[in-house]
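Box 3.1. Reading complex inputs
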Amino acid sequence: MNSSNHPTLPLTSFWNDTGKCGVSAWVFSTDHKRIGLLYLYSVLISFLVAVLIGLLLKIELMAPGRTIMGPVTYNALFTVHGVLMIFLFIIPGFPGVFGNLVMPIQIGASDVAFPRLNLLSWWLYITGALTIVLSLFTGGGPPDTGWTFYVPFSVRTGTNVSLAVIGVFIVGFSSILTGINFVTTIHRLRADGMAWGRLPLFVWSIYATAWIQILATPVLGITLLLVVAERLLGTGLFDPSRGGDPIMFQHLFWIYSHPAVYIMILPGMGIVSEIFPVFARKPIFGYKMIAFSSLAIAGAGSLVWAHHMFTSGISDMAVLVFSFLTFVVAIPSAIKVFNWVSTLYKGSISLEAPMLFALSFIMLFSIGGLTGLVQGAAATNIHIHDTQFVVGHFHYVIFGGAGFAFFSAMHYWLPKFFGRTYSEKPAMISWGLMFAGFNLTYFPMIILGMKGMPRRYYDYLPEFAPLNLISTIGSWILAAGLAIMMINLFMGLLKGRPFGSNPWGGATLEWTTPSPPPTENFDEEPVVTHGPYDFNRAGVP
Amino acid sequence: MADIEKDSHHIIRYPKLVMVWVFLLLLTGLTVWVSRLDLGVLHVWGSLAIAVMKAFLVIAFFMHMRYEGRLLRGLLLLTLVTLAIFIGFTFFDLSYR
């Protein structure tokens, strides 16, 4: 992290913003770009710790029996891996990092609607994150419930579940405030001429995401408080012997946590919708349908939560309805994939690092989405429920989809904010390793699940050994690619060659400002006269 | 921005606020009275109806929603409909179990 003065960058850039200096220039800044970078560093720390834990989990599964840890440690580590990845990396990652960095500039605003609230969101995120970290080393030690905190186990276990869920509760507040901030910003602070039909598709996706953050996150907050109440006061809310209902917990948890999957993936969809037209040198195909499908995914995706509960004892009627609704969500998702592929058709495609990650997104997300339908169908769900199939599917959607979109955005947008860029060749090598390693790691899980290997077990039958070994080796290749990508990216951002104001040839507003942008983003208030992918009228070849 | 300024400065006169408060007290009394009646299935619906009326008064007058533009009213409606769907979908499962 830099102090307030950055000698190698233009004096007008936000890095040279005067006023405060040192750490306080960052942690008390209300500039959306600085807050975005704070989120970047914070979520990447969580991500890298969670990656290391994931590698340990894969080493444990390399061979049957105990390899490097016992079942108790394994339970704790997969829980911490899930909590860090989901609540501290991927949910806050997109809105916190790229929503903050890019969205206000893309709509022509000088900042978000509530800059101080924005800073508070980051502070709440950090407070929640530290509370979660504290929960690992205090009380009964790291929670061992899985990231879903299912009752009755989460109520009975002696591990430090109470403090961990309070941490998640605090992080949830950060998410709600960010959502409120972004919805208000997009409604009120658009530049002259920035009509709804001219909003970049990333902004549409952030808008849809913000609504999910506002509407669904409070349900998670209440649910987690009920778990704490159950643990500390013994209220009996989820205890059938006292008139409670354990399935009620699952309803409440998934009312948030299924839409939360769309908090993770929708911005990723927005990012690749920005990248395809730029790297195919063609206007996006089906702008309105992509924008509409973001809202449709947010809406329909909020009505499918009980497909996580087909084997939990919900009614047959509920299984029927939620299975049907799950298939409905596939329609707007497929609309997006169709439009992205149509955008690429006959385009002048340039295979640079952001594009490679974005193209991988289509393939990996499609595998993730289609394996999701296998689970959404009531009959096949029974066979694969709680197996490695689910773990494979989830990683295809969230890592292969959202994760690769995040890396794509890092290569596409971060040079804009640092004024320097990375080397292309190591970026392409890292992409190749990650893509190969990813599929080697997670595709075997899908097969293992279909063969009956359950999830969340540190041991397995000998017949599952070969595929588990392949998966573990894949995780090492994936990690090597990740390491090369991170080193290349950050070395380049700090010491690489200068990055011009619009080297990619984008037509959205962030490419009309210098790299890095000035404190208030634009030297003059922009007036928008063309659509976000109208390259001709934007004057870029 | 001008709309926000205008809306945020709307002042409700005290007599009207006191009237709303009195209504809320009456509805609270009604809640207590209904709780002592045996209405069978209608018991829950009756109590919910009174609660909805009270919430409406608080939102409309104390939270000034009556004086806001169509956008904010629409957004509030969206959140209420979402909540209703969440509750409705959860409880319909219960009734078929």
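In summary: Chain B has two domains: 12-63, 69-97.
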